Amino acid sequence: MLLSHRARLLELWRIAATYRIDTHLSVEEAPQLQPIMRLIRMHPAAWGKSHQPNAIKYALEDMGTLFLKLGQLLSTRRDIVPPNIIEQLIQLQDKVKPFAASVAIGQIEDPKYGLGQTLDTLFARFDVRPLAAASIAQVHTAALHDGREVVVKVVRPDIRRTIVADFELLRELASWVSARIEAARAIHIIDIVEDYRQVMLNELDLTLEASNTMQMRDNFLNSALMYVPEVYDAAKNVMVMERIQGVPISNIELFDKLGYDRAALAKKGLTIFFTQVFRDNFFHADMHPGNVFVETPPIETLISDTPVSLGYEPRYIGLDCAIMGTLSKDDQLIVARMLLAVINNNFTAVVDIVSRAGWIPPNTDKHALMRDMKRTVGPMLQKSINEIDFAGVLMQILDIARRHHMSIPPQLMLLLKTLVHVEGLGRDLYPDLDIWSLAKPILSSWLKEQLDPMRNLQQLRAQLPELLLSTTDIPKLLDQGLQSLASQGARQDSQLREMQQIRADMLNDRRRDWLALTGFGICIAIATQVGWFAPVFYLLAILVVVWRILA
């Protein structure tokens, strides 16, 4: 199966050996990695080389976009990744190796996928040195002719081919795992890979990101929680947007210098997340620190040792809206009710919710499932975010799903990935945050609003004209239904006759089998008792077998 990707697998092996990433891994901390470490040392590219600084960062860069994305996810997991590796992974958030400015300019001026105009026509100033470089694109600062400061995002060249090839490999790995591990089937790992493949390919189209950014800006217009920059122009490979003043959420030392209330900032971040998921049903699904910024005073004031202030509570800044998630209304209600039931320590309700959602088979032992959920999730409710291992608990929940044959819809896996990101950010920013006290009123208020009879009545009233118009189709639908029933009845009669004929044929075949078997037995028995006449009866036995084969 994987032999068709042997060239790519060999390339990944060579890159890992070239940078000797095995010297950055500890057998004591991760003994399960020991076979991989031995394999890396066996490659000729590793011979004669020793420990290299930032080897894991450089190796992931050379391996490609998918591995960069994995590194970005792990960069928020200080609880499961050693500090020496975390320091390298953090650099992948916005310190990826840039590509040449001349290539970026060519992308910008390209008439098909770029803005189709010369750099001088588009900008009064264009800074050739990139402000930041990430896995999908890099960013240059510039100024428009009217004086507005902007950032210009440019997609990396030839990235689509690499992503498509890596996803083919990833899909085959997912198929291999799904065929052998029940937990992988329970979470629909193949569907997840396919969905994420499409998400990644969409991320390469900056017109889609521009559209997402404008929708997010509308959702948080004049909000005290978050500011989303304005988009000025966009093409498939280029986007021009407003330049903002802020720093990544990981810059905790600067927040302390500026006197920011980190507890309030952490609460604001979680409020934004719940608002996106439940109020807007449009949530940022790539929340690594390189994409989550916080407002700061102008950069020149930060150089001074004198304390400075914005004059108001700092807001988050919404960036890189390429990967966005949405849920169906039913899934929204299921997730909200499940979270609220967990917060209220009501695991009977949790099992009832997943049962009504059709996530578990009808014959599931619900009491055993409730005990497992309470044992796994219950202890989280008395802990601060610093003490909660979301990723570990998620793995335990997936193990429960496997044992109880629970089927988790693929669209929820993107939300779970986002929760892992959010937990990592909150852990770094303010470890003592009580996420349950914050989430409960938000969820309760949203559910109350969704289940309000007056609100539902107003929605019904708004839809009434459309419903009345649709009633004109009722006679036509009834006629089509009757015709369908009639044709279905005719098909069922035909199928019944075919089944009766098959049954009759099976009975005839059985009779022939017995006749052939009896005749063959008699011929063989006689042949063993007679002398020189035996060949005749052997011939008759053969003829009986031939008759049965041809009959």
Descriptive labels:
551 residues; alpha+beta; 6-stranded antiparallel sheet; 4-stranded mixed sheet
Q: What would you say this structure looks like, in words?
A:
The chain is an alpha+beta fold and 551 residues long. It contains 23 helices and 12 strands. The chain has helices at 6-18, 34-42, 55-63, 65-74, 83-90, 101-109, 119-122, 159-180, 182-186, 189-203, 206-219, 252-258, 262-280, 299-302, 329-343, 347-356, 366-377, 390-403, 411-429, 435-450, 453-470, 474-527, 534-550; strands at residues 125-126, 132-133, 137-143, 149-155, 226-227, 231-234, 238-242, 246-248, 283-284, 292-295, 316-318, 324-325. Strands 1, 2, 3, 4, 6 and 7 form a 6-stranded antiparallel beta sheet that branches. Strands 5-11-10-8 form a 4-stranded mixed beta sheet. A two-stranded antiparallel sheet has the order 9-12. Helix 3 (55-63) crosses helix 4 and helix 13 packs antiparallel against helix 19. The mean pLDDT is 79.
